[in-house]
Amino acid sequence: MTKIQKTSRLVRKALQTVIILLPVFVCYYWLTLNTSTDVLNLTQLIDLDMDISALTQAPLTLETRLLALLASLGLSAILLYALVLLVRLFKNYEQQEIFNFENALLYTKLARSIFYWVVGNFIYTGVLSVILSFNNPPGERVLQLTFTGVDIMTLFLGVVVLVISWVMKEGYEISQEHSHTI
User: What is the DSSP letter of 3?
Assistant: First the structure.
């Protein structure tokens, strides 16, 4: 087994583990937030960009937690889609299929998923701020939309991955032309 195959298998298995753990951690986060079992926040292992205490004065109800959980799982679905694409890509690498058309398409889909993430995150912050502040008295409910420098960098990353996909497609077409040349 070559170094590329070994590394690809390791990365693929790590990505598959993240695919399993991500929804579990999202559920755990929202179901235990601000409770005695909230190990993630108490140990500061996770830091949400949004200050929840600024959005609501009341303790989180089960309904609020479940709505926030659904919104978070919606955003996580975009990340899970990108992780599935990466698993397929590294599975191809593991089988020593490096420069093929499928990989080029996977890179294109991966770039699109990065763009979806930025749009989804923008929508998610608004939806989450409404969910968390909904139990506040009228006049104190919040709609908070954010677009930060990290989002700009993420868009830039999406453009870079899109360019890589174009290069991969072009490389595939050139290799196909050369394989048919006698």
Answer: H
Query: The pTM is what?
Result: 0.88
Q: Report DSSP letters for 122-170, one per residue.
A: HHHHHHHHHHHHTTSPTT---------HHHHHHHHHHHHHHHHHHHHHH
- Residues listed for the chain: 182
Tokens of 38: 């909230």
| Residue that is written with structure tokens 């990989």 in the block | 103
* Pairwise CA distance, residues 15 & 11, whole Å: 6
Q: Which residue has the tokens 């991969």?
A: 168
> Residue 61, CB half-sphere, CA atoms under 13 Å: how many?
10
Phi, psi of 90 (to 5 degrees): -75, -25
Is pLDDT above 80 for 53? no
- pLDDT tens track for 130-152: 999 888 888 888 888 889 999 99
CA distance 30 to 28: 6
DSSP summary character for residue 60: P
Sequence-ordered list of residues with C-beta below 8 angstroms from that of 45, at least 6 positions apart, any chain: 39
